[in-house]
């Protein structure tokens, strides 16, 4: 028997969450995340749902304030090769809007082996390593560094400004492909931030 289609069209946020709960696509900590990368459902259009730059979720212009409800939807998030982000079930794929990143990293711990472990606003934990790399952008407006960490699939978390300062304080000079770079180390992994020349230039401009 094919799974029942969890049709989101015309539903309010509570009805959508109930559909997810009834079909078993929950985001509770005790449940394994659904295998969204293995599903290939039809595209059923976009819905008016947005993840804003501060990590807050909105549906039809209204905030989704319950963390448990946000976790339900976050559990079925997937970013595809086309650069768009979708809510995905075995029988339906709907597009949503993401202003910046899918998650917000709000806490960092340095483990005994010097691995960096991050917690998102939804209490997901991820360690920076080869499978979950850190990447860095330069904010065109401020010239500041914007760090991101891969959480799963193509989904990323952006570090808060306070956490960015903490992370940059751990940086050091290192050689990458023969060039002097400012790098962040996490365990055995090394993540280049920028060249030392660019760091000196940015520091002089502050």
What does this structure look like?
The N and C termini lie far apart (63 Å). The longest helix has 10 residues, at 13-22. The protein is α+β, with helices and mostly antiparallel strands and 206 residues long. The protein contains four helices and 15 strands. It is elongated, with a radius of gyration of 19 Å. It folds into two domains: 13-98, Roll (duf1285 like fold); 103-205, duf1285 protein fold (Roll), CATH 2.30.270. 17% of the residues lie in helices and 40% in strands. The protein has helices spanning 13-22, 67-74, 161-168, 196-205, and strands at residues 43-51, 57-59, 62-63, 77-79, 85-89, 92-98, 103-110, 116-120, 125-127, 134-138, 145-152, 155-159, 172-176, 179-186, 189-195. The mean pLDDT is 88. The strands form three sheets. A six-stranded mixed β-sheet has the order 3-2-1-6-5-4.
Characteristic key phrases:
single chain, 206 residues, alpha+beta, duf1285 like fold, duf1285 protein fold, 2 domains, 6-stranded mixed beta sheet, DUF1285_beta_roll_sf, DUF1285_N
CATH superfamily of the largest domain: duf1285 protein
What fraction of residues sit in β-strands? 35-45%
Q: Name the poorly predicted regions.
A: none
Derived from helix and strand composition plus strand pairing, the structural class reads: alpha+beta
* Beta-strand segment tally: 15
CATH topology of the largest domain: duf1285 protein fold
CATH class of the largest domain: Mainly Beta
Number of domains: 2
Shape summary? elongated
Give the overall average pLDDT.
88
Strand order of the largest sheet: 3-2-1-6-5-4
Helix percentage range = 10-25%
Radius of gyration: 19 Å
Helical stretch count? 4
The SSE string, one letter per element, is HEEEHEEEEEEEEEHEEEH
Please outline the major beta sheet: 6 strands, mixed
The second-level CATH architecture of the largest domain is: Roll
Distance, first to last CA = 63 Å
């Amino acid at each position: 028997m094919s799974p029942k289609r969890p049709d989101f069209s015309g539903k309010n946020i509570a009805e959508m969450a109930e559909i997810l709960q009834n079909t078993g696509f929950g985001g509770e900590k005790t449940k394994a995340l659904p295998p969204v990368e293995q599903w290939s459902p039809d595209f059923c259009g976009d819905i008016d749902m947005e993840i804003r730059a501060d990590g807050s979720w909105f549906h039809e212009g209204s905030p989704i304030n319950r963390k448990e409800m946000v976790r339900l939807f976050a559990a079925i998030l997937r970013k595809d090769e086309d650069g768009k982000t979708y809510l995905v079930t075995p029988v339906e794929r709907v597009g949503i809007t993401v202003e910046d990143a899918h998650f917000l990293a709000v806490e960092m711990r340095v483990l005994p082996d010097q691995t960096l472990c991050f917690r998102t606003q939804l209490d997901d934990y991820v360690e920076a390593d080869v499978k979950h790399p850190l990447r860095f952008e330069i904010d065109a407006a401020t010239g500041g560094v914007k760090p991101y960490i891969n959480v799963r699939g193509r989904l990323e978390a952006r570090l808060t400004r306070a956490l960015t300062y903490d992370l940059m304080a751990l940086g050091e000079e290192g050689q990458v492909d023969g060039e002097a770079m400012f790098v962040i180390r996490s365990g055995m992994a090394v993540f280049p931030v920028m060249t030392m020349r660019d760091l000196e230039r940015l520091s002089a401009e502050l």
